[in-house]
Amino acid sequence: MKRLLLILNPCSGKKRANRALAEIVSIFNRGGYDVTVYTTAARGDATQVAASRCREFDCVVCAGGDGTFNEVVSGVYAAGSDTPIGYIPAGSTNDFASSMNLSRNLLQAARDIVEGEPRTLDLGSFNGRCFSYVASFGAFTRASYATSQSVKNALGHLAYVLGGIKELPSIRSRPATDSHSASMVASASTGRFRSCGVVTLLP
Q1: What is 108-156 written as a DSSP string?
Q2: pTM (predicted TM-score)
Q3: Dmax over Cα atoms in the chain, in whole Å?
Q4: 131 Cβ contact list (under 8 Å, min separation 6)
Q5: DSSP strand pairing (198-202 vs 85-89)
Q6: Helix (H, G, I), strand (E, B), or coil: what is residue 169?
Q7: Which stretches of the chain drop beneath a pLDDT of 50?
Q8: Which pLDDT does position 13 carry in this prediction?
Q9: Can you name the residues that pair with 59 across neighbouring β-strands?
């Protein structure tokens, strides 16, 4: 029997994955996987457990939001492993999952991981940190980190919009004399493509 590590962020979104956990594990069991579940307790947990244990498993699955998924990707990448990564999008906005056309239905996402074929995912690097979808800096980027989980759970995507609005009074324009002095909003994207929910990493 194949082995699967399920890394669950129990605080993601409105905690939907918590309520569906038994059914998710059952889908993996019926798909031929012996499942080990790890629940995160703090920021960085998913990276740490993915890095230290990914080589023990045939597949690592993340159940959480975009941040948790990026932590799992970072951990597997840091380990230098080619272990496939599955994603069950259970966060507040799930932008990355939307860009990949993944099912928002948690049980269907689990089925897609069992039944689908892995796709290759390009990774970007920004100041020594890898990213799987987008890396940003400048105005409004702090909102996604400063917004509390309880507010995200209650308001979903609107929580980020309100967080950005709160930053408006602190934004000041500056004359740009060269590329280094310009205040800007910038992002880098790894592109859009269809996927079944299982990816392998291509740095």
Answers
A1: HHHHHHHHS--EEEE-EEETTEEESSEEEESTTTTHHHHS-HHHHHHHT
A2: 0.72
A3: 62
A4: 70, 123, 124, 125, 188, 190
A5: antiparallel
A6: helix
A7: 179-197, 203
A8: 82
A9: 4
